User: What shape does this take?
Amino acid sequence: MSEAELHLLKMRLEAGRMNQVKRGAYQQPLPTGLLRLADGTVVKDPDQQVQRIIALIFAKFSELGSSRQVLHYLKREEILLPRRHCAGRHAGDLLWKAPTDSTLLSILHNPAYAGGSLRLWTKTDRSSVAAASTPSRRTNPSSNGRVAEPATRCLPRIHFVGAVSR
Assistant: This one.
């Protein structure tokens, strides 16, 4: 498959996702600790052990002050982290894995755990934004002297219940 075909395929997939968002049919993938019910509402995982581990991660981060220290604590205490299969034969099954830097950071950085809402954005061409914001007002040679507009558009908020609370 050529690079042009891959680009076209990616654009069509992105357009389909944006269409789902506009219709209200898009379902944001949820992190471990949150589940989507049949009616579409998002709730905390009913498994108390999953809730305790997620709460423990945030409590230890608050106490110790760094994700590295939390990782060392989890490894020292031999605490496994819950993960849910997203797709395939075992979709929805709970899996317990040893903690890693990336897994721990994905939990700590995920805004869904704080509750509130997530906002979906399309990607922005950073070079065109930088060019438009510089005092010289540089232009793209292929744009016929026009300054490119940022390709960002704001989409509806998706509200989640918080997995942790203070």
User: Anything to note?
Assistant: The chain has one domain: 3-159. The two ends are 51 Å apart (CA to CA).
